[in-house]
## 1
Amino acid sequence: MINWLLTATSDGATRLQALILIMGAIGALMMILQTASEVSDIIKAHGGNRELSAKAE
């Protein structure tokens, strides 16, 4: 298992580095989705989109 993770791929990076990169990308995506969810909750708490767009005008 360890040898497989440390085996270099064709571009020279190890599989372990690729795995860490993928996990980081998934983590970043989850943070973006969490932020979007919180923003959505804030908009709902303020009465939805119609009220906010009426205030902007």
## 2
Amino acid sequence: MNGYNFLELAIKDILRVINPSKEDWSVRFHIINEVRAVAESIESLRGFNSNLFTKWGDLDISIELQNGSYISSPGRKHKQSLLGDVLRALRKKGGFRRLQFISNARVPILKFESFYNISCDISINNLSGQMKSKMLFWINEIDGRFRDLVLLVEDPFEQPANTARTVSSNQLIKISAAIQATHGILTSPNHNQTSLVSALAGETYMSVTNEDICVNTCNQIRNKKPWC
């Protein structure tokens, strides 16, 4: 066996170990439904939503606030107040442990651990987190090798001591630019973090329209398969 074949087999073995099983997916969906019983309108974020999580990865949940057909962006104080209400509701419901409200974080979050030993973070209308999740999901849809690379290197959403290792919005824009240069246009060249987040806010139908445009673009790029 040559070195290349040995490396290929080793990588496949590693991916087999770290890839989530059907049970890992089911457990996370169960946790989401448990939280949904307290706050109906929620959306999973980041690793889970973009299919870029390991079997021991944590779960990030955003509680979505809508005013009719309008997706709002509440202020920091409002988010803190709502998370306080969620904290009390989760304590009353039971089934969650190590509940911790981190109000002074850049994005206020409520942390807890499920009885499945999965760490979970809850935020309010985390549009930036949604944008990152969708961008990474679309990139993964274009070329599935991206997912293997992410899982082998590190979970991009973990928060290590060195925050330079986390995926930032600017890095996502650079990844999109690379995709645009090699496969086609994924986002507008004028997009930045603010405009991408804005694309998810406002009228619901506009948010859905923007998503549909990106999904159709990804399908067109994937069908061309320029890397084969």
## 3
Amino acid sequence: PKSTSTDSLFGWTRGPKGHFELQQTSGTFSIDGTNIDDDEFAKVRAVFPTSVLNKSQISVTDTHFSLTQAQKEEQTYQQKRNQQIERQKYLANLWETLNYVIILLSVGIFYLLYQKYGKRHPTSRFSSTETIMIPGEIRPATIGWLLQGRNITSNLLMATVLDLARQGYFNIQEEPPEEGFLANGKPTFSIKRMEKNLNEELKGWEKQIVSFVEQRIDDGHHKLHHIFKGTNAKVSSWFTKWKESFKKYVFGKNWVDEQSYTGCYWNIAVQSLLVIASIPAIIYAGPVGLIALFVTMFALIFSFLIIRRTPKGEEVYHEWDNYKEGLENAKAHSIPSNKLDKHFIYGLAFSLGEKELQNIITTNTDVMPVIAWISFSSNTSSVANVASSFSTLGATGATSFPGTSAGAGASASAAGGGASASAG
């Protein structure tokens, strides 16, 4: 009904500073807002005389309200808001500083623990020349565990089965490919228990394999990929027990410094706390806080680098690693035919690929290998056929045995039933 002068209009804004402005002109309010995010609010509070309203259409809800009250409330709000902004600035500066403190602590603690527990023993005195001479009589699975990062995989189990066959406890028969929609057309392999009694020199984890194969054969399973089918609950349960037995044996070889595990576990504990501490740095310091999070997470992941070999373990590792390199480059060497099966078993334990395993068999193309513990089918009549069959035999462990293989054949990626088990 009536107009009012500009000096009778009072207004306040609540919202992002610099993005929301209130102006008074000619008895009216003008509001401009720019770049206001969806999660931000913009409010306007206006106080003006009631004479500008039609009193017949309004009701008074607070008869004690006054301009002084509104001014005091808005002053209090602005004070609290300014205090909050100052606190946010303080926390941002604080956590930006703490961000770098966390980084220094993370790197420093990892370095100190690595120097105390994980620093490698000198290896300069060891030869680095590759060889195809087997360095000793260490069991394939045992040395494979050391060379493959202390992981217990299906390759180690398969290598042990074949090594037991080589010693006369089993005979392996090449069988025709299985039929079916998912069949790959490659030969399969059955296993037969021979009459040889268990030698007292066999280790407990080797005897466990012999007993388990006997039990599975008695249950009507003769194919290797059925005997050790990783999706079978009985097989998985047995593999867990066998894994613990094998783990106990390999740690008893004194190849790994068990004290280094102390440093590893300490680093895991401390870095985990620092990872948690870096989260507020992201909240208060913004993107710069991500640096601390990344550094502490990497330091946490690298904890296992602290685990080291003993001086004895380093010596054994380098001797056998040279032999592994020799098998990887088998085409450059001439391997006697009477040693092919043993080299193949070691190559399988070392997780060599399909091509590398075939190269071990085909290094001597003039002589057809005669291997007493495996009976090939009539179609396997050349060195190339033997190499292909051996490669398929190696891949059987990768696709069917419990655990995940680290390599061994083209079908390794199809491995099913369980996960790789780290002995570390």
## 4
Amino acid sequence: MASVRVRLLFSPVGVCCRLSAGVGRLILQWPEETLKRGGETVDISCYQNHTRQLAYMFWYQQPPGSGLKLVASTSMWLQNSYAEGYSQAKFEISRDNSDLSVMTIKNVTCEDAATYFCAASDHTVQ
């Protein structure tokens, strides 16, 4: 039986600062990198440490040589919204609490090889 190996990269740390308030926000993702065979599943976790939980978390995909593409967003009210071309059947988003979101990529293929990013905001601007 032939198998395909898929390499998935994740942005491990993202930091942004809101200068007017002098407050830093930290976004952590893990794992930093994973190698999967075709058909396997991968979980990517994203944590944000803002003192008041941010209402929205966004997941992005950046295939090699391409720009960022929005995959989906999730809200504190557990409402997920998927961008065109992406679905819950392939990219399942969970948000068990307001700080942590997990994106599960099911049945990985070569087309899923990319760098994945998460972001958090109080607004729906994507």
